[in-house]
């Protein structure tokens, strides 16, 4: 494992674990149901507040793991170290096919979106594109992906 960073191994392990959870467990099916329509899932006997609470706890746990990995990579811990990643994350998951209205999308699609956004960000950095224009391009990607999502819903 000397060629592959530990953070990459951990990322793939977490990806596989949560792909299993979302596809094969009751919690995963309920999470998709609540994301699609909370009121309908409530009439089906699912407690949306409990599912959302559990989802937020899992997201917080994964964010804390990400913060530890980022701090170890940077060699220091700063409270503003991850600022600005939210915009890139939204662009990546929307590009990967996750609907902003909820209930639609896959973890693998989101991972592919993250991979594509990483390539785009690295390419823009290598081309010495100004940071402001990188944000503009990321915003255009979000708008384009949302437009495609709405277009798919209507047709």
Helix content: over 70%
Tally of distinct domains: 2
The protein's oligomeric status is single chain
Q: What is the 3D form?
A: globular
Terminal CA distance reads 47 Å
Q: How would you classify the helix and strand content by structural class?
A: mainly alpha
Largest sheet: none
Poorly predicted runs = none
- Count the beta strands: 0
Describe the protein:
There is one protein chain. The chain is mainly alpha-helical and 155 residues long. It has 2 domains: 1-77; 84-155, no CATH class. It is 76% helix and 0% strand. It has helices at residues 6-24, 26-36, 38-43, 48-74, 85-95, 107-126, 131-154. Helix 1 packs across helix 2, helix 2 crosses helix 4 (48-74) and helix 5 (85-95) packs across helix 6. The longest helix is centred in the middle third of the chain and has 27 residues, at 48-74. The protein is globular. 13% of the residues are buried. The mean pLDDT is 90.
